């Protein structure tokens, strides 16, 4: 797969604070690429650099195989940090400015995106009169103007109510199906797990891991088993495999194995040979939340 | 370039403060000249001996071609009014963070600065047109008989435009560096109205130094000398002021180049 964005050794410091430390990864075409990290991990700094708002101290980045520049940015719909609009102008007039600068979209396209983000009825109201959620929706609308093939969205669901969050989520999935590439920074792990195909995790400016979501989460398989006599099952499983530490969670026992080493057939046979009949056996992928804490807390 | 002008116009044309300040400027320029003109008429039209002496002494500074110089001088004292809009236009970009958004949407940093240069040039053009209109009205309504020439001193239109552009550029620089509208407006008005005039006069009269001529606003202030009747007080000094205009044209152009060169350089270097 061709890469849309390639980062090579990006370093950025604010005085003594090193915000990004030699960050490198690639975003494949057609991916929904989530950039995860706790507050202050360098997500927004990274997006600011690839959008030319900040200058990297070291390293390079390439959009579509070329060095970044104004002409390339015009092809990318972006929402960085906060919705940035002229407060005294209406939604429609603000989007005309976006259109005049980027060259994306037409007058009809402005109305279409306003309908998409459900601001059409308030299109003549001043930006300063909007709620936080409406401002955020306008910023998403500006990014969508002209149907760009690449979108950079920094916390796109910030300030939105649950309905708004669900709408943005389905919009992103719809764009993904149409072949758009979306680079999205978020600290909402559930959000990323639901919609991203790829991800990178940053912590204190360092890239902890990057790749397809399946690969990142594939570090460990967890097997959940249960039987009528849970105590007997727990006792029996202690002798099963040294690596698979049984942990009792609620009405089940959880066993962790290195990726690819969980063998449910063998577990079932082992239990049956000890006179225990399983009434529940399931392999689980590790949840993103657990993986995230494991990577960022260590 | 047309795209930059169009985009800036989209920002400006719906900005209420722009129209308010334009309205105030449109009232101030004719108003202040009308006020000085009324004072002149009141003194000279009495028909008594002191009035006749004053008329002989002052001539008619509001008739053509002298009206260009007189109106230019009085109007130039109020450049701080359009400067308010220039400062607001740049500080708005920082408070709304639209300076970042313009770059994200596809302008280069250089294009952003060219857009701001367009704002200053556009404002200078509007103010100069207003000055020209006021001068024509005042000059034509103060004709000394039918034998008069309108255009001999109309080069003051160019000098007024250059001075306005230079001083508005300094207002822009203030907003560009300080970023906060209230702070930038306070600093510029304090410097324009109080600090520099005091500093220039202290240097001139107390220390007998001509260093004040090279203060940022004074450099271009000297493009527009006081009305011609000041010649009567000190002819040699007044002639020296007129002779120095051509040098101050060069200094002012140089200052404009330095101001904008610095702004372009800094905007290219710094994080947004």
Name the helix and strand elements of chain A from N-terminus to C-terminus, one letter apiece. EEEHEEHEHHHEHEHEEHEHEEHEH
Rounded to the nearest angstrom, the distance between the terminal CA atoms of chain B is 23 Å
Q: Given this structure, which CATH class of the largest domain in chain A is correct?
A: Alpha Beta
- Name given to the CATH architecture of the largest domain in chain A: 3-Layer(aba) Sandwich
Distance between the termini of chain A: 33 Å
Residue-averaged pLDDT of chain B:
90
* Percent range for β-strand residues of chain A: 25-35%
User: How large, in whole angstroms, is the Cα Rg of chain B?
Assistant: 20 Å
CATH topology of the largest domain in chain A: Rossmann fold
Query: What would the average pLDDT of chain A be, to the nearest integer?
Result: 87
Number of discrete helical segments of chain B: 11
The shape of chain B is globular
Care to count the β-strands of chain A? 14
Characterise the protein shown here.
The complex is a heterodimer of chains A (298) and B (272). With 298 residues, chain A is of the alpha/beta class. Chain A is 35% helix and 31% strand. Chain A has a six-stranded mixed β-sheet, sandwiched between helices. Chain A has a four-stranded antiparallel β-sheet with strand order 2-1-4-5, with helices on one face. In chain A, helix 3 crosses helix 4 and helix 4 crosses helix 5. The longest helix of chain A has 16 residues. Chain B is mostly helical and 272 residues long. Chain B has one domain. Chain B is built from eleven helices and no strands. The model of chain B has no long low-confidence stretch (mean pLDDT 90).
